[in-house]
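Run log, item B.
One chain of 135 residues. Sequence copied directly from the ordering sheet:
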Amino acid sequence: MDQYEIMKDILLSTKTIASVGLSSNTEKVSYAIGLYLQGQGYHVIPVNPSADEILGEKSYPDLESIPEKVDVVQVFRRPEDIPPIVESAIKIGAKVVWMQEGIVNEEAAQMAREAGLQVVMDACMRATHQFLVRS
């Protein structure tokens, strides 16, 4: 399976996305991407310690606080912030870590893969969905 097939498979099998770093600011790209994903039927769970609610969903301070099963951990954070997020993704039993466009951390990706998670780096989930699923 090539990278595009893997991403398409992830998008088609995903129901719940924990979005780390999702902003409550409607001007931010992360907010627009979260809104798009909600509109496509995904359950987007905001992970942002400085917000109570984003996109009409309760926001959690960290991944471990989410009371339900998460399929994908989507990350809108700087590359150096990724390793502890991956550790949390492994702890909660997520299947995928998806680092948004511009975010690459090979060390964290390797840690996720070794724990059995799929990894997508440097790819916008919205653009990928539009290209691979909606087209």
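Observations after the first pass:
- Helices lie at 3-13, 29-39, 82-91, 106-114, 125-134.
- The beta strands are 16-20, 43-47, 53-54, 57-58, 72-75, 96-99, 118-120.
Flagged for discussion on Thursday.
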